Sequence to fold (334 residues):
Amino acid sequence: MTVNAATRSSKKLNTRTLKADHAGIAEAARIIAAGGLVAFATETVYGLGADATNAQAVARLYEAKGRPSFNPLIAHLANADDVRRAGVLNDVARKLAKKFWPGPLTLVLQAAENCPVCELARAGLPTVAVRVPAHETAHALLTAASRPIVAPSANRSGHVSPTVAAHVLADLDGRIDLILDAGPTRVGLESTIVDCSGAQPRMLRPGSITREEIEQVLGMPVQDLSDAVSQKPIAPGQLASHYATRARIRLNATDVKPGEALLAFGGTVPSGADPARTRNLSPSGDLIEAAANLFAHLRALDALGPDAIAVSPIPATGVGEAIGDRLARAAAPR
Ligand code: TXA
Ligand code: MG
Fold:
């Protein structure tokens, strides 16, 4: 099977479209399990799906969307039992889940211990966004793949969300493996997002489930942060403080100073580097591999307690832009 041929090598390869019938779902589940990218219908908009447990697949997803930064992604799950393995459902979350799932509601939860959703998909956050979609295609795919699937809207970064398969094709042809065509989506607007990770529930994004409905179920007011989020096109998860390492970060380093650890990229590692204090994001210079390794390597180097982490130059092309964005935040003065 030529999974990822499209995303990996060539813009000439066209993306296949299949009907979202039994055979289509089975093929889609195979591609997801092999680390590929599949666009599928949910009741809100078409999502671009990847195996949430596979950092390489998630890195390919960011690359295909052309996202300049690692926004945290929503993990889609087949049912509330699967959600419990990913995140901690407090009282508020349980009430909302019972009332609105399956459906167009996303909950931000404290990530569970051993959360299967990889760190790259969570953008390094201690929280995880989860949703149990109501669309039968989404549900069938999640069941067949039997793993959480992250799915941002299936459009190029900065474009509007797709509500029919043709929109997906127009944006992502040649960049993803498969589109499952299930006709137009019902809601046409991304899910409502409620942050249940803290003491007070907060609304992060409005959607077809309204704040009034949510307040009625909870019997308490819900703070509305959606304005703040939309005026500042920075997801809460992207604030610089979330990315802080203990060690300072020194970018574009071509040498390693005493007391520094090295986050290398590519085949030429600077002289003076101590192998015990070096992690290479991708010895072969593959940006997708580098993105998949970024959070784990940063964490591992930081745990060694260096004064600073010197970071080799990384090209700002493709997903390299998001890697640079992440590193610049980590390097920002604080
Ligand atoms: O309706 C939808 O939700 C669609 C369909 C495909 O399910 N998906 C979607 O995903 O709209 P996306 O990636 O376009 O939007 C995800 C939003 C972003 O605004 C992101 O900042 C927020 O969810 N988000 C994800 N994880 C978060 C977290 N841990 N904390 C706060 N916000 C989070
Ligand atoms: Mg989107």
Remarks:
- The pocket of threonylcarbamoyladenylate (ligand 1) is lined by residues 42, 44-45, 47, 71-74, 106, 108, 122, 125, 127-129, 131, 151-153, 190-191, 193, 204-205, 235-237 (CB under 6 Å).
- The chain is about 30% helix and 20% strand.
